[in-house]
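Table 4 source record.
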Amino acid sequence: MTPDHCDMYNRLQTAQLRPGYVTLSAAALAARLGMSRRQAERLIAATAAAQHDPTALRVVRLPVRIGSGAKRDALHILWPVH
């Protein structure tokens, strides 16, 4: 679970999205892969566009806080955890 949505969802609700996977925002994906946040955003967008491919990682939209209590949907990639 990443810090940008930990206030919105408890650990069980996020884990129930897909067992064996963790949701990563662009910032968390960039930190994990050692790339810039912009490159991670492009990677998530390209993966979201390829959802018709059964071998592609899944992408979900989760609400995140953007300030003053406002929320928006942001793309998160489901990253396998073994």
